[in-house]
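step=encode ok
step=design start
structure_in=
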């Protein structure tokens, strides 16, 4: 396993293994857990916005591009979960993840003997399939998950933004997750993982991941093309991009290439594909990461370079007690089970609150023009969040 893959896998395992083996995502013996722990269903937090949340699923194919991992494929395939503000009371319950996706995720993380796929598919979400959308025009945010991870792991953020009036396109990129289910009973696996693992050197691995980030940027631009053509409720002048890990790098990459994207967020992702020397056209960008891994002077020097090149409104925030996966669903689910990883002691509930608050405030400010003092500097209510201001 290459260094980058090892870092990602280790981060996930250290965060989830004590959680999964101890409580709701595992299958404890009667002697090891109370009955309420055995039967506990985990859930995505209830969104705080004024709207109910609807969800649709799209299968998009860009036939003008070949897939970078499987050139014989019929174009570049994407699965997109569309979250949108909806009227309450309609639709049917959405599923968090398919059985195939859960099975492959657990196998990829070597947790298949600890966790059953049904325990992931049973995670309760708030979105309703077929719910009636509210009227009017709404900002669009495209979201990209971390390398190897299913798009479902960004559900909390997607639902929160939709509840506040955003349309959110949560994208799975073909062959870059352990498993993504496509129409027709196909579940594609992580061909990209093998390519990255077999890279003969660290430099060549990073070059592959840079290529992957740039290709994801093209994916996101294509998604914007399709959605602005199909979804009349999207305000084409208010489009943002965000992502976790490699998806965060993709958010910067799509901004560099596509002027329609007015604002972007990188959640704890290395900039394998660097921000251009010319900057991002003075458009705003938020870097939100771990204190240990992404503070100024840390091992990942790509954040310092990105900071120098960002030429518009910008913030570099790090979170005390966080880990690489703080910004996705996993620690939130773990927190509900009462388990916190010692190496990332920030409680799961706080992880979700911080992520949705700061990412939401960023898009409110830059896609809606609303003043959000939360972004002005440290606050007593959020002592974990550090505002870094290194000199250029």
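sequence_out=
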């Amino acid at each position: 396993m290459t260094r980058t893959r090892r870092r990602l896998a280790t981060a996930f395992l250290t965060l989830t293994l004590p959680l999964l083996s101890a409580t709701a995502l595992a299958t404890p013996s009667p002697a090891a857990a109370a009955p309420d722990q055995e039967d506990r269903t985990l859930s995505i937090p209830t969104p705080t916005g004024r709207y109910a949340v609807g969800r649709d699923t799209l299968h998009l194919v860009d036939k003008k591009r070949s897939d970078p991992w499987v050139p014989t494929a019929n174009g570049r395939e994407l699965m997109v979960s569309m979250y949108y503000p909806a009227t309450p009371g309609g639709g049917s319950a959405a599923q968090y993840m398919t059985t195939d996706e859960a099975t492959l995720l657990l196998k990829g993380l070597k947790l298949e003997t600890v966790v059953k796929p049904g325990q992931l598919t049973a995670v309760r979400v708030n979105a309703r399939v077929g719910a009636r959308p509210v009227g009017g025009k709404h900002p669009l945010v495209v979201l990209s998950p971390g390398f190897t991870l299913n798009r479902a792991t960004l559900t909390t953020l997607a639902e929160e933004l939709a509840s506040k009036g955003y349309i959110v396109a949560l994208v799975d990129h073909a062959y870059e997750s352990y498993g993504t289910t496509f129409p027709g009973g196909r579940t594609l696996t992580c061909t990209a993982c093998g390519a990255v693992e077999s890279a003969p050197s660290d430099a060549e691995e990073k070059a592959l991941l840079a290529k992957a980030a740039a290709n994801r940027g093209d994916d996101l631009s294509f998604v914007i093309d399709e959605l602005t053509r199909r979804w009349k409720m999207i305000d084409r002048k208010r489009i943002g991009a965000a992502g976790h890990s490699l998806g965060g790098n993709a958010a910067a990459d799509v901004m560099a290439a596509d002027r329609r994207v007015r604002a972007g967020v990188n959640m704890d992702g290395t900039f394998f594909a660097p921000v251009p020397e010319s900057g991002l056209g003075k458009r705003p960008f938020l870097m939100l990461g771990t204190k240990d891994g992404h503070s100024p002077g840390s091992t990942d020097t790509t954040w310092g370079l990105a900071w120098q090149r960002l030429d518009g409104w910008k913030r570099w925030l790090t979170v005390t007690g966080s880990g690489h996966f703080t910004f996705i669903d996993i620690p939130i689910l773990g927190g509900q089970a009462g388990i916190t990883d010692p190496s990332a002691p920030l409680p799961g509930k706080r992880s979700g609150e911080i992520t949705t608050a700061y990412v939401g405030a960023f898009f409110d400010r830059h896609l809606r023009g609303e003043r959000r003092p939360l972004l002005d500097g440290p606050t007593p209510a959020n002592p974990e969040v550090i505002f870094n201001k290194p000199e250029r």
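step=design ok
step=annotate ok -> The first strand starts at residue 52 and ends at 62.
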